Amino acid sequence: MILHVDMDAFFASVEQRDNPSLRGKPVVVGGLSKRSVVSTASYEARKFDIHSAMPMFMAFEKCPDLIVIPVNKQKYSLVSKKIMEIFHQFSPVVEPVSIDEAYIDVTGCERILGSHKEIAWSIKQKIKKELELTCSLGAAPLRFLAKIASDMNKPDGITIIEKNQAKEFALAVDIQRIPGVGKVAMKQMNLLGIRKLGDINNFSHNILLNKFGKFGNKLFEFVNCLDNSSIGKNEKRKSISSESTLDKDTAEMETIKKHILAHSGIVGKELRKQKLFAANIFIKLKFNDFSQITKQKQLKIPVSSSMDIFNHALLLAKNSKISKKVRLIGVGASSLSGKKIPIQIDMFEPVEEKSNKWEKIDKTIDAISDKFGNNIVNKAIFY
Question: Cα–chain-centroid distance for residue 336?
Fold first, then answer.
């Protein structure tokens, strides 16, 4: 049996726990500017139809008495670490999938800790007692069903799908609940008349592949209750990115440059923390008319230096010939690997030594930041 545990309105719940005066009130965690977006909404705020990623100005329109708390990543990370430690007390096979959710394989743990039902309730009670937080939990013989189950009785709920119930349950699940079915896939589902997962049986494997590509394989597996994904082995990270909405729309390159530098620093630090190198750098620009562009560059030599990322991202921005005011700027890195292996490098092209020097400087700055806090040392734009 596999458990999927999802913390309830995690960031907001932590803030309400630490400040009792916030309990029972509509609270969101996010940027303080009305141009920011909601990171997490408490369940009291959700009654006003406020949700994650909603623009803050829209959230205030729905609830003028909304209380906004700034994001405290360090605090949430510490609480998350304690949550994961609790999970490991019940099984050695735990796979965190984000800061506030994880899969736990409890197969074989029953002899020591009791049935999967007892383990599920024990986890919930321990989190509530030790951390004063609630979670929603799903238990099922298949990973994707556990994920669906945890979302069925939020907040503070529990849903158990036994092995003999799995097939019947899966066939009756609304298709939009299936992990991986987003807006694009739903358009195709509507065209094909697929409302429940069981409707997938009306189509051959080849048609599914033709209509949905690789995801067609997943749909075929799901409807037949086949799920070979193992727990505990996280998929390799595909990308690392950082973005923010500006307080004021701008077309000034100097302002854009400052934001690119800041985001490049965040992306670079995360790459070095994960001991990864990126062979692809990309930027995301959203304009004041809400149109957006993404530009990317494939590198011959993978990088982890924040300055390298900044230089490539800045060049992408300059080549974009920005003619409209920008409201959101993002920088990202993809094609990640654990080694700095040159990709199709030209044997006659000189390799920049500056990259290695910046990597050493970045590692020194990382160590200082870890010890004394972020923003103790910052890079200046000197050209």
Answer: 17
Summarize the confidence of residues 173-202 as an average pLDDT: 91
Does residue 343 surpass a pLDDT of 50? Answer: no
**Gap between the Cα atoms of 177 and 168, Å rounded:** 15
Cβ neighbours, 10 Å, residue 299 = 19
CA 133, CA 150: separation in Å to the nearest integer? 16
Beta bridge partners of 99: none
- Cβ neighbours of residue 151 under 8 Å, at least 6 residues apart? 6, 136, 138, 177
Span 28-51, pLDDT tens digits:
999 887 778 899 999 999 999 999
168 is catalytic: no
Alpha-carbon gap, residue 10 to 101, rounded angstroms: 10
The C-alpha torsion from 192 through 196 and 201 to 203, rounded to 10°, is 10
Whether 264 contacts 310, CB under 8 Å: yes
Give the other-Cβ count within 10 Å of 140's Cβ: 27
Binned at pLDDT 50, 70 and 90, residue 214 comes out as confident
pLDDT tens sequence across 298-332: 998 899 999 999 999 999 999 988 889 999 999 99
Catalytic pick from 101, 235, 243, 349?
A: 101
**With contact defined as beta carbons under 8 Å apart, do 335 and 281 qualify?**
no
Region 336-362: mean pLDDT is 56
